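Worked example 3 (structure in, sequence out).
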């Protein structure tokens, strides 16, 4: 069983605190325009923060524990961090939001698909649970900066089955650091734009449990 304990190594954590779909010629210009719209002027991932996030949630390179597979993703649901393991033994760390209440689903998944500026359709469960919010989008929401999946999406599969869980951008960047989504892992749009091209289809995403009673923000 995958537990947060697996995420911890004896005497320390896996990561220290010290340190797609092909674009078509017709849609790429629109994607570029939207990318520019959601990326701050003079963007520096480590310092740009027009969203007012806690500084710890900005992209940071950290040291990874030996033995982790390059290219894999690890989501610490308690600290609200996503780590992407690099070939040099480091990892890029990003702040994220996770599912609220019991909607977050821990487990080990495969990145089965990637998409830039995807179309979004709420699941039947989301519509049944909150029809006042989601029923209006039963036929889907067109791509763009206001779309619920934002600028990029990584689709989480269990074998060949699409779990309907995503790691994706969000039009609500102030939700980062909180339990806020309907189950997916949210990222700042500019942050996932930087991550997206580094993640290969077929990589493994480890989503660790969100234990109750432990605070997520410093």
């Amino acid at each position: 069983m995958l537990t947060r304990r697996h995420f911890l190594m004896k005497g320390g954590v896996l990561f220290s605190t010290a340190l797609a779909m092909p674009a078509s010629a017709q849609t790429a210009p629109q994607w570029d325009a939207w990318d520019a719209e959601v990326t701050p002027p003079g963007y520096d991932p480590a310092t740009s923060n027009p969203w007012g996030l806690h500084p710890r949630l900005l992209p940071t390179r950290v040291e990874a524990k030996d033995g982790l597979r390059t290219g894999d993703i690890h989501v610490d649901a308690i600290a609200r961090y996503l780590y992407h393991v690099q070939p040099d033994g480091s990892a890029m760390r990003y702040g994220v939001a996770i599912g609220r209440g019991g909607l977050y689903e821990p487990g080990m998944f495969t990145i089965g698909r990637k998409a830039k500026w995807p179309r979004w359709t709420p699941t039947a469960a989301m519509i049944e649970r909150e029809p006042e919010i989601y029923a209006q989008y039963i036929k889907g929401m067109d791509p763009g900066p206001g779309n619920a999946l934002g600028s990029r999406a990584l689709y989480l599969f269990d074998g060949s089955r699409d779990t309907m869980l995503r790691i994706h951008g969000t039009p609500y960047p102030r939700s980062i650091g909180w339990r806020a989504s309907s189950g997916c892992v949210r990222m700042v749009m500019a942050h996932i734009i930087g991550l997206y091209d580094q993640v290969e289809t077929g990589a493994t995403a480890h989503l660790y449990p969100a234990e109750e009673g432990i605070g997520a923000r410093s």
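Notes: The chain has one domain: 4-207. The domain at 4-207 is CATH 2.40.440.10 (L,D-transpeptidase catalytic domain-like).
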